[in-house]
């Protein structure tokens, strides 16, 4: 039986990845600073611990592990990463997790490690035209990410590759493009656009309106978490280190995305475009490399993925509305 460690296993993608590994017959240890809010924590062993502490990394990284999946990071959507107020914490916390896990993996002789990078590492200058962003893997340099979160991801990609080069740990690196789905953060300030828009629509009165940050012409592509987990597993089982994009190529403007969610809800709502943290003007995954190296790329249509997510977020909104008000 293969043994895996999922760092950040209490989080959104980590929770889904644990389920996938379990369904493949793995024994799974998870570590996270917090438990999974939605009970999506089916690991054989779940350790609550802070990976900024090297002693915690030493405790969870054992020599019997076949694989490590490093997803622990201080992470959020535009409202968290583009305000500037969380920059020091993002860089400090995420780098420490990466350093501690890599060092422990080296000391314990773990053979293979996955690292979750982000499309936020791509240079801003290639993402100014909302209809024509460039995010092919080789366009990463000259580097000019638009956020410190992106710079940290770029540095950490390099960190993982140095441990591969100097210490023989096989690194597998994917650049995620805006992953969403059930059990994803949907309120509280760290939520990304897909969940935020679903929440706003679910909470709106029929005939009312929802707020969308910016002019709504900015573009993104959004990938359902099941496809993300599929891509992680395929990359991990391949001979290709990456970094490689893991995203959808179905680019959409934010206003068109909001219209799609409104249509799914069956409500009659208008859109107010208001000022807010924006990030890059346009972004889309470029899937040439993943297709070439893995013979696979995500293919689930956006609408189908949004329907599933809207249903789940509507349920969360209803549950919250039924909760007794705090004293
Ligand atoms: P998430 O916030 O749900 O998961 C990250 C987990 O890491 C959280 O549960 C958090 O508690 C944990 N964590 C943070 N600091 C920790 C620490 N010091 N010790 C232990 N655990 C700690 O986010 P997610 O969407 O599941 O993202 C997983 C990974 O994928 C992250 O590295 C993120 O940067 C990367 N990523 C995600 C997206 C996306 O759209 N969701 C896009 C690009 C990259
Ligand atoms: N979060 C959010 N909430 N974004 C909104 C909202 C809202 O209510 N309304 C409009 N937007 C707009 C943002 O202004 C931004 O232009 C766009 O939707 C996308 O926002 P996010 O989904 O929050 O973030 P992102 O795509 O800019 O970056 C995210 O994806 C990266 C990977 O592709 C972040 O989550 C990064 O952390 C992640 O690495």
UniProtKB/TrEMBL annotation:
Q: Which cofactor does it need?
A: NAD(+)
- A family per Pfam: Epimerase
GO cellular component annotations of the record = cytoplasm
**UniProt keyword annotations, A-Z:** Decarboxylase, Lyase, NAD
Tell me the Gene Ontology biological-process terms attached to this UniProt entry. D-xylose metabolic process
Q: Name one GO molecular function term.
A: NAD+ binding
Domain annotation NAD-dependent epimerase/dehydratase: ranges: 4-241
Which PANTHER family does the UniProt record give? Answer: UDP-GLUCURONIC ACID DECARBOXYLASE 1, UDP-GLUCURONIC ACID DECARBOXYLASE-RELATED
Q: What is this protein called?
A: NAD-dependent epimerase/dehydratase family protein
What phylogenetic lineage does the species belong to?
Bacteria, Pseudomonadati, Bacteroidota, Cytophagia, Cytophagales
């Amino acid at each position: 039986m293969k043994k895996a460690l999922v760092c950040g296993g209490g989080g959104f993608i980590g929770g889904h990845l644990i389920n996938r590994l379990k369904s493949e017959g793995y024994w799974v240890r998870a570590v996270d600073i917090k438990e999974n809010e939605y009970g999506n924590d089916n690991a054989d062993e779940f350790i609550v611990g802070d990976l900024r502490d090297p002693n915690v990394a030493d405790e969870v990284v054992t020599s019997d592990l076949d694989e490590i999946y490093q997803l622990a990071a201080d992470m959020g959507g535009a409202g968290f990463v583009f305000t500037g107020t969380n920059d020091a914490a993002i860089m400090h916390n995420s780098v420490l997790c990466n350093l501690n896990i890599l060092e422990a993996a080296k000391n314990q002789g773990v053979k293979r490690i996955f690292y979750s990078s982000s499309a936020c590492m791509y240079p801003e200058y290639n993402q100014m035209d909302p209809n024509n962003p460039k995010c092919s893997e080789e366009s990463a340099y000259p580097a000019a990410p638009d956020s410190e979160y992106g710079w940290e991801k770029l540095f950490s990609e390099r960190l993982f590759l140095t441990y591969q080069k100097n210490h023989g740990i096989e690194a597998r690196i994917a650049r995620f493009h805006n992953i969403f789905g059930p059990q994803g953060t949907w309120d509280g300030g760290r939520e990304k656009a897909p969940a935020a828009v679903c929440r706003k629509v679910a909470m709106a009165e029929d005939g009312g309106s929802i707020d969308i940050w910016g002019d709504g012409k900015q573009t993104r592509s959004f990938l359902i978490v099941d496809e993300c987990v599929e891509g992680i597993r395929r990359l991990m089982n391949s001979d290709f280190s990456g970094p490689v994009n893991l995203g959808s190529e179905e680019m959409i403007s934010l206003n068109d995305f909001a219209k799609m969610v409104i249509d799914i809800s069956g409500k009659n709502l208008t859109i107010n475009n208001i000022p807010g943290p924006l990030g890059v003007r346009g972004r889309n995954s470029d899937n040439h490399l993943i297709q070439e190296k893995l013979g696979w790329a995500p293919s689930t249509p956006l609408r189908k993925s949004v329907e599933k997510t809207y249903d789940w977020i509507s349920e969360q909104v209803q549950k919250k509305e039924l909760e007794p008000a705090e004293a």
